[in-house]
């Protein structure tokens, strides 16, 4: 009963069976059993004739005698395996050979199974059923491979489209920083922005309403990727260097000119805007500073960003600030403002944690002490944009191999040279 069910299932799986034997009687015996079980059967009296059939319309299962004049069953099997076919053909060799070496030759030639002559009807049915199971699994695997291949093709196209969009997004993000260095009177602000991917969550910038005042900042949005980049785009609008009327760090006075708001007020305004937007989960760290180019007085607010590095002209250096709470993390934060006086030749470096938390080949992270050593190493006859680029290059040389950039790296350098 079980054998009858299996052979019925096999007849639904197997389309055609090719019987190859130079003996008409042997072909008749095999074909009679196969037709009785419901298979479509075709025949060939030689290997050469069988090959012609297989070239035009390959069968699902082949029963071939081993010993035939001209092309033997072994040669036929080898030739059959070289044919280009979409599916798999299950090959059974009919033989009176039982030596292990002969069986090995048959397997090497591409045979899947063997039947000993004279063929027993029950054994033939079992071999055919086994072949049907193999073909069924092969077709299932082929179908899965087809689905995987089509899915991968769709993913490639989607990836290409996303990659194209990200490249365009990077151009848009780069437009948020229209210039990387600008001279304000005798002083200068220089910027560095190196995203770890196509787009990043760091933002640097500068702007001036004129009248000897300049504002500059460094921002690091939480997370990475598209959502962080979208936040930087929004912040780029809030702190626009092109449109004073859109810049929250500026206020119009007497309907005639713009002035810089105190840094602590800017932090409060940005925090109120971000926390009020219920659809935004991102927050960001920031150092925002304003400088009076006549007196050298710099006022700053630190909101969770790394401590600004003050580099004195006489070689002294110190890290400023007390930390602070990131912008957009909590509502109604009371930010603290602090200030310092710069002398001609002094510089102020604002940097992201992409510097200090960079993993090093020697182990550990760069941290503040490592950053200071790196700055002193690069600070030989260089200034402005050249100094920042050299600083980044030196960092890449000591970065842990194989790590790549794990985070965006950015910096803002203010060089004060007197009124």
From TrEMBL:
InterPro entries (UniProt xref) = Bact_Sigma-Reg, CheY-like_superfamily, PPM-type-like_dom_sf, PPM-type_phosphatase-like_dom, Sig_transdc_resp-reg_receiver
Residues where 4-aspartylphosphate occurs? Answer: 65
Response regulatory domain: from which residue to which, for each copy? Answer: 16-132
The record's keywords, sorted A to Z, are: Hydrolase, Phosphoprotein
| Any one biological process term the GO annotation gives | phosphorelay signal transduction system
SUPFAM superfamilies (alphabetical)? CheY-like, PP2C-like
Q: Which Pfam families match?
A: Response_reg, SpoIIE
GO MF term set? phosphatase activity
Name the UniProt record assigns to this protein: Fused response regulator/phosphatase
Provenance organism: Pseudodonghicola xiamenensis
């Amino acid at each position: 009963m079980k054998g009858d069910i299996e052979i019925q299932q096999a007849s639904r799986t197997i389309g055609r069976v090719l019987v190859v034997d130079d003996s008409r009687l042997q072909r008749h015996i095999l074909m009679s059993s196969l037709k009785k079980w419901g298979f479509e059967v075709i025949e060939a009296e030689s290997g050469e004739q069988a090959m012609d059939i297989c070239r035009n319309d390959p069968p699902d299962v082949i029963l071939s005698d081993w010993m035939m004049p001209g092309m033997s069953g072994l040669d036929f099997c080898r030739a059959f395996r070289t044919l280009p076919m979409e599916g798999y053909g299950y090959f059974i060799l009919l033989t009176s050979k039982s030596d292990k070496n002969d069986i090995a030759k048959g397997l090497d030639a591409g045979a899947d199974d063997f039947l000993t002559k004279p063929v027993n009807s029950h054994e033939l049915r079992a071999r055919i059923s086994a072949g049907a199971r193999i073909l069924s699994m092969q077709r299932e695997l082929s179908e899965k491979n087809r689905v995987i291949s089509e899915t991968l093709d769709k993913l490639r196209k989607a990836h290409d489209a996303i990659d194209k969009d990200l490249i365009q997004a990077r151009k848009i993000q780069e437009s948020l920083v229209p210039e990387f260095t600008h001279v304000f009177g005798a002083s200068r602000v220089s910027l560095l922005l190196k995203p770890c991917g196509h787009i990043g969550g760091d933002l640097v910038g500068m702007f001036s309403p004129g009248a000897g005042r300049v504002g500059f900042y460094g921002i690091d949005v939480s997370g990475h990727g598209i959502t962080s980049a979208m936040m930087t785009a929004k912040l780029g609008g809030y702190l626009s260097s092109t449109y004073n009327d859109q810049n929250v760090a500026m206020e119009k006075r007497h309907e005639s000119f713009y002035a810089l708001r105190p840094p602590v007020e800017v932090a409060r305004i940005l925090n109120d805007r971000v926390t009020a937007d219920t659809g935004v989960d991102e927050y960001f760290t920031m150092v925002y500073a304003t400088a009076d180019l006549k007196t050298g007085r710099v006022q700053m607010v630190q909101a969770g960003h790394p401590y600004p590095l003050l580099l004195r002209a006489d070689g002294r250096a110190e890290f400023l600030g007390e930390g602070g709470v990131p912008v957009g993390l909590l509502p109604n934060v009371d930010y603290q403002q602090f200030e310092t006086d710069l002398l001609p030749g002094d510089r102020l470096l604002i940097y992201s944690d992409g510097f200090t938390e960079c993993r090093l080949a020697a182990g550990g992270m760069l941290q503040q002490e490592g950053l200071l050593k790196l700055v002193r190493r690069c600070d030989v006859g260089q200034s402005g944009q050249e100094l920042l680029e050299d600083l980044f290059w030196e960092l890449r040389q000591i970065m842990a191999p194989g790590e790549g950039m794990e985070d965006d790296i950015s910096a803002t350098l203010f060089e004060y040279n007197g009124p």
